[in-house]
Amino acid sequence: MAGSNNFTEIDDTHPSHTPYSHKIKAVCSLAKKKLNGVWTKKTLYKRFPILRWMPPYKTDDAIGDLLAGVTVGLTVIPQALAYANIAGLPTQYGLYGSFLGCLLYIFLGSCKDVPVGPTAVAALLTFQSLGGKGIEHAILLCFLTGVVQILMGLFGLGFLIDFVSGPVSSGFTSAAALIIVTSQMKDLLGIEASGNTFVDTWKSLFHDIHHVRLWDTILGVICIVILLLLRMVAQINIGRTEAPTKSDRIINKSLWVFGTSRNAILVVLCGIIGYMFCRNGEPPFLVIGTVPQGLPDFKLPPFGFSKEINGTTVVTTFVQMISDLGSGIIVVPLVGILENISICKAFANGKPIDPTQELIAIGTANLLNSFVQSFPGTGSLSRSAVNNASGVRTPLGGLYTGVLVILALLFFTPYFYYIPKATLAAVIIAAVVFMVEVKVVKPMWRSKKSDFFLGIVTFVSCLVLPLEQGILIGIGINLVYVLYHAARPKISVEKLFSRGGTEYLLLTPDRCLIFPSTDYVRNLVTKHSIRQGIPVVIDCSHIYGADYTAATVIESITSDFASRDQPLLFYNLKPSVSSVFEGLSPKDFVVFYNHDEVDELLKNRSCIKKQMEIMD
């Protein structure tokens, strides 16, 4: 941290005569100056991005945000209803997490395209973290997710997501998509099934397969087909792409709006069909049932609760709830910010992103969402794509999305009763099936087969084991890869001649010298130097850092070379690295920066050697 030239003098020469109030005032004055140094105008603009884009806000921006916000709102309402089902929670809790986060992100969010709310992956992780526990655990998980993400942001731990490589992310996302599809098969078929993993869910489905409801299955399949066709409609472009006419633009825009709003259109139509059937008796398919009307109460998340079971009051403490949630307290926040940062990178258009600010924004959204009984959420990739394609200009588009959700909770929840469960299952399946990253398999195989293996291991682990354990296995293997490469640097070996005709051995390590690699490098240098028996030059151009262990190894190597009376020189060693090595005062430690100096250094060393022999 940079120092400050502002000092506060505290006269402590006569402590017995100095009132404590004066000392307290002096300390408070110093603290105030420090805080003033932290909360500068630059920091405020960085931590509250709204201060940057709001002053130049124009009418065109308002129109773009309005259209995009309404379009995303029409998308998020049916998705929220469906994602609550993935999390194993009552339907209304999906809507509870879809409005406050959007509103908060207006002030704290740094990416205009991110709509905060429930996502398929976050809902699935919530379901697996709960392990059949109630809504109280889900709300507490939301609160703790926010706390962890805010702390990561405040302590600058956004770099941790860099340890989740592309193959691990692809394997995790693809497995999550298949698990989500599997979890919705029960509603698509109208049967009862449960399970915490992909394999367990399919076992449960086959166990109850003889109870399949025909009309639920027919309706679900038809809905999936319609959604996929409408997705294609959204991509249709009529007329010339270079210079389209006004009528072509109107038609193309209408087709895009129609295709993009496919979820809302289908849910409304199927809701009408469900309403008509319910008026005439029992519908032939299952409907979602009663959804409580109105906004949720704003209250503290449960840090413990009690329930009466069979006449006995069972008390669950905060510590027990933490224990029940397990590794989900860490995995859910990490995956949530990973999703969000991926969206920011996808729509950054080459601009730098601020992971710290996104951690604070998403963490604050989750923290306050827990006060309105929500489960964890983050930025949604599918809704971000809709937001971007709708022409969003600023994060203010989230205002209109949040208002639409609030209106739905206030006035339209009685009509949600008639929406078929198979329709919501179809909405989810048609959306997440494209999350299976098939396209990366071939390029990954051709590029680097070890990365392909890593992706496959992560994919299989996430299917067989609970999702959070699967991704931890993938990250663990990835870290082993990283540590192995750090411990095994490549060293090129060349025999060269100096201008004076002296033959020497040039060894060039390709990376930094740190403790896992030092013994390996020492063994290679020793082996080649003894085998050749000629002067050795180590090219340090690629060594940008070293540690104490490396310094001890260099000290040992120089001593060995001196005992063998074999010249050892270090070429182009960075001053910062050289100071680390010189800290142990190695014997005959010679550094040079010009190849022409090789002959002179070797000659000088020979002269010194002769002088020492004469003296002996």
How many extended strands? 9
Number of helical elements: 26
The main β sheet shows up as: 5 strands, mixed
Amino- and carboxy-terminal Cα gap: 54 Å
Overall form: elongated
Percent of residues in helices:
55-70%
Strand content: 5-15%
Low-pLDDT windows of residues: 1-18
Radius of gyration: 32 Å
Task: Classify the secondary structure makeup into a structural class.
Answer: alpha/beta
For the residues shown, what is the average pLDDT? 85
How do the strands line up in the largest sheet? 5-6-7-8-9
Describe the structure.
There is one protein chain. By secondary structure, the chain is α/β, with parallel strands linked by helices. Helix content is 61%, strand content 6%. The chain has 26 helices and 9 strands. The strands form 3 sheets. Strands 5-6-7-8-9 form a 5-stranded mixed sheet. Strands 1-4 form a two-stranded antiparallel ribbon. Strands 2-3 form a two-stranded antiparallel ribbon. Helix 4 (59-86) crosses helix 19 (421-432), helix 9 (166-189) packs antiparallel against helix 22 and helix 21 (449-464) packs antiparallel against helix 22. The protein is elongated, with a radius of gyration of 32 Å. Residues 1-18 have low confidence and may be disordered. It is a multi-pass membrane protein.
